[in-house]
C-alpha cells in the first residue's frame, strides 16, 4: 500500500500482520508499505512442509524481500520489527546477507534467554495443551494475549488477535510455536549485533510484561543504538496507543 520508499512491517508471536492495522495506513502516506502473515500465523498456511521456527521465518523473510524486488540493484527497504519479528529480520540481515535502509526494533525477541515461565511450561507439555476443549483453549489464548498488555485494547482488536488460533488447525499451530522456541536461534545472531550494516533505533513499551525494558536496554547497548522508552505501554505498543506509537516510529525512521 502507498507509494514512496519501501517499508516492511514484521510481526511476531502470537500476532499477525493485523497487529499493524492501526498504524500501517499512516505509514502509507510516506512509504510503500509491505506486510504479510509469517508462515503459521494469521491467515497463512499453518501446516506447511517445514516447522515454523525462527530459522524458517528468517529464510522466508528473505524470500519475501526477493519477491518484493529488494535485490542488490534495487532500493533497500526500511524495516520495523516487533516481537520475534526482531530476531527474524536480524537473522535475514546478519546471517542471510539482506541489506536494509534502516531497522527499527520495538519490544523484540533478540537476546537469549527468551520466553516466560508459562511459555517454557507449555513448551514442555504441548500434547496436553493441544487436547484442551476448544472453549478452554480460546480462554487460554485470550488470557495469554491480554497478559501482554498494559493499556486495554478495543474488544474487536482482542477478538481479531485471538481468532486465528481458535479452529483445530490454529489450536495445533498455537501450541507448536511454544515447542519451536529455542535460544539457539537468537544465540546465532548475538555475535553479529555490533556489526549491523544500517542505522538502528530501539523503541520499547516501558512496562512490557513479557520482555522487560532492561532487555531492550541491553540489546540497544550491544548494537550501539539509542533506545526510546514508551511510557505507560506494554508489549503491543502499536495497538495500545497507535497515535503516539505511529509518531514515534515515524521519528525513528527519519532521524
List the helices and strands and how they pair.
Layout lengths: L5 E5 L13 H4 L4 E4 L18 H14 L10 E6 L1 H11 L6 E7 L8 H8 L1 H5 L3 H13 L8 H8 L5 H13 L2 H5 L12 E6 L7 H11 L3 E4 L6 H4 L1 H13 L1
Helix pairs in contact: 2-3, 4-8, 6-7
What does this protein look like?
This protein is an alpha/beta fold. The protein is 43% helix and 13% strand. The protein has a 6-stranded parallel sheet, with helices on both faces. Helix 2 (54-67) packs across helix 3, helix 4 (117-124) packs across helix 8 (168-180) and helix 6 crosses helix 7. The radius of gyration is 17 Å and the shape is globular.
Quickly describe the structure:
By secondary structure, the chain is an alpha/beta fold.
Radius of gyration based on Cα positions: 17 Å
**Number of discrete helical segments:** 12
Instruction: Report the principal-axis shape.
Output: globular
Mean pLDDT metric: 93
Helical fraction equals: 40-55%
Strand order of the largest sheet: 2-1-3-4-5-6
How much strand content do the residues show?
5-15%
- SS-based class: alpha/beta
Kindly state the number of beta strands. Answer: 6
Q: What is the distance, rounded to the nearest whole angstrom, between the alpha carbons of the first and last residues? A: 23 Å
Order of helices and strands: EHEHEHEHHHHHHEHEHH
**Low-confidence sequence ranges:** none
Main sheet: strands, sense, barrel: 6 strands, parallel
